[in-house]
Amino acid sequence: MSLRGFERISKYKNSDFPLPVRKTKYSAGYDMAAIEDVTLLPGTTTLISTGIKAYMLDNEYLGIHIRSGLSIKNNLSLINGQGIIDADYYNNSDNEGHIMIAIYNHNPHNIVITKGTRIAQGIFYQYLVDETDKEHLFATRTGGFGSTGE
Fold first, then answer.
1. How confident is the model at residue 79, as a pLDDT?
2. Among the four 47, 100, 128, 139, which has the fewest Cβ within 10 Å?
3. CA 92: distance to chain centroid?
4. CATH number at residue 14
5. Is 62 domain-assigned?
6. Are 21 and 30 in contact (CB under 8 A)?
7. Domain that holds residue 73
8. How many structural domains is the chain composed of?
9. First-to-last CA distance in the chain?
10. Mean per-residue pLDDT, 47-57
């Protein structure tokens, strides 16, 4: 196993659905696609399943960004601007680390996303761990979305 990468969650383990890849030599982001068809209702946020999870080093996170073409052409955005997948989200007890993309539909009409549509990009980032924080952080993640509190 490499230092960071993607795997299918167990529900899609035997699927031939492609794992995220960078499309060019200098692409920063790994394209992520919808694993199933979904309809985005007007003025609402919808969680779109990708069928994947990501593993990485302890001092890294995966930043989730909406694909600009999808966003601009369809008037969509990530509800939280940028998603953050922490290293300890991988294989958590609630949802196995399944990456879900939270997209808000700004339109007055439905938008249909079909299986295989590239909806987001994931970029691996490193961050600094403050020594004073390390002394106080002993909690272990025990769940998925919202598991570290509000």
1. 96
2. 128
3. 14
4. 2.70.40.10
5. yes
6. yes
7. 5-127
8. 1
9. 33
10. 98
